[in-house]
Amino acid sequence: MTRGNQRERDRAKAQKAASGQKTKTTKSKAEMQRDKDMVAQLMRDKQKQAEEKKKAEGAGAAAGSSSSSSGGGGGGNSKK
């Protein structure tokens, strides 16, 4: 029993579906590296800001807790 042109139609249909899908990345290595470096720099800046905020809060908390000793262990979340 022959399939007629069914095989050819299925092949054409599959080829059309495959052509609509995304292929390889269009960025060059230099562009990918530049984007990666930019994201890394943003993360470093974000971490630096978080550390500065932590230091500022720590300095403020240390000044405030030195007058009243509560014995609470710093008041922060001791679980890690």
Structure commentary:
This protein has helices at 6-20, 29-65. The longest helix is centred in the middle third of the chain and has 37 residues, at 29-65. It has 80 residues and is mostly helical. The protein is built from 2 helices and no strands. The radius of gyration is 30 Å and the shape is elongated.
Brief characterization of the structure:
This protein has two helices and no strands. The chain has 80 residues and is mostly helical.
Helix count from the secondary structure assignment: 2
| N→C terminal distance | 70 Å
Number of strands: 0
Low-confidence parts: none
Shape assignment: elongated
Mean pLDDT: 81
Pfam families: SERF-like_N (PF04419)
Biased composition (Gly residues): 70-80
Region (Disordered): 1-80
Protein name: Small EDRK-rich factor-like N-terminal domain-containing protein
